[in-house]
Amino acid sequence: MIDIDLIRKQPEKVAEGLRKRGKDTSLLESFKKLDDTWRELIKKSDEIRAQQKKAAQDRDQEKGRELKEQLKKLEENVTELERERYILLLEFPNIPFDDVLVGPDESHNKQIRFWKEKPEFDFPIKDHMELGEALGIIDTQKAAHVAGSRFYYLKGKGALLELALVQYAFETLTKEGFEAIIPPVMIRPDTYERMGRLTDSQKEERYYLPKDDLYLVGSAEHTLGPLHMDETFMLDQLPKEYVGFSTCFRREAGTYGKDTKGILRVHQFDKVEMYAFCTPEKSEDEHKKLLSMQEKLFQGLEIPYEVVEICTGDMGPTDARQFDVNAWIPSQQTYREVASCSNTTDYQTRGINTKVKTVDGKTQFAHALNATALAMSRTIIAILENYQQKDGSVIIPQVLQKYTGFNSIV
User: Fold this and answer.
1) I need a labelling partner for 144 at 20 to 30 A (CA). Which of 19, 109, 287, 375 fits?
2) Contact 273, 267 (CB under 8 A)
3) Do residues 303 and 296 touch, judged by C-beta distance below 8 A?
4) Burial class of residue 200 in the structure, from the number of CB atoms within 10 Å of its CB (0-12 exposed, 13-18 middle, 19+ buried)
């Protein structure tokens, strides 16, 4: 969540941030009304407590009972207003950095570089599903009978390819100082809210288990951050960098008919994720490092990609700055997102109360960043399509062959 004092003291800055994102600034006025009412009730509560103290000194029991009843009703109203205000506060997105591209949607994103020339084929190419089905490594039809649409089985060498990608990512990143984590894939609603990932507008995207009052996570990020909830780092503990692996669950609400063929946009997928805590002064440097790790992984796989700067209208709500890495998909003759990289500044750490002690002994909220290392289904799509051969086989990227134990899928 954003700093409530920022809303109170610099409302125009918050309004500008909302406008840049294409959001209705009426949210600001609605919050201000609630906050003003809450502050007024707090003031009245303090006045009644002062009157209670005087009534006790005067031994006026009747007045004391009357004031007690008034305070009880006020406190009930205060509690209700606090919850309403908190829910509304969660709807405020992070404030973008001043130099972030301003635009309403993805059409205003900007390519800042690309790596490796696109492959040329001297034969009719196939998409990932044609390849996967012919090679017997992807089965969406049986998955649809078992679990419904937009699920899939990875079979045989396809499953081994995913495990190789996980090993490759973990080995690469742990050598760079990241600590390996296998986090929970379920999360309590209050923790999810504190991570800024369970606003009313986001709930439709989440899978909820009402009997257990738990949500399935949409990314390892969602439970990696709370690993340091309500904790304070010492300066020499930062940066703290994690690489986590988890299954992810997303409804992909509103995407019916869009990219629903194959395994590009599914309800369940596996992902290796990076998450880092650092001081506010170092967060932009840390952001560059996470992006460089993403590029290192895809360069190792030798898959053509572009790096794109994301505009304000297309950024995630928790982000102050975001980059995407998009891999070349030959069958679509375009780049498609395979990884995102976000600096959330103190937006998430304010919610989960993660701080750092400064040199002068004071504390401030740490900054947190998250970045996809490898999203398995999308990376597998990129490998199948870019490494396909004329005979229908697929060559395994050389960097993965020591993990797979084979150099092609035939």
Assistant:
1) 375
2) no
3) no
4) exposed
Torsion angles phi and psi, residue 252, rounded to 5: 55, 45
Mention the CATH class of domain 4-90: mainly alpha
Distance CA 54, CA 61 (A): 11
Instruction: Provide the phi-psi class of 325: left if phi over 0, else alpha when psi is between -120 and 50, else beta.
Output: beta
Q: How far is CA 279 from the centre of its chain?
A: 19
Helices (H), 58-91: 61-90
DSSP 8-state symbol, 112: E
Q: What is the CATH number of domain 106-409?
A: 3.30.930.10
Domains of the chain: which residue ranges? 4-90, 106-409
- Start-end of H helices in 238-302: 283-301
pLDDT digits (tens, 9 = 90+) for 229-274: 999 999 999 999 999 999 999 998 766 566 778 999 999 999 999 9
Give exposure, 391-403, as e/b (b: 16+ Cβ within 10 Å): eeebebbebbeeb
pLDDT in tens, 186-204: 999 999 999 999 998 899 9
Whether residue 280 contacts residue 362, with contact meaning beta carbons closer than 8 Å, is answered with no
Omega of the bond prior to 239 within 30 degrees of 0, cis? yes
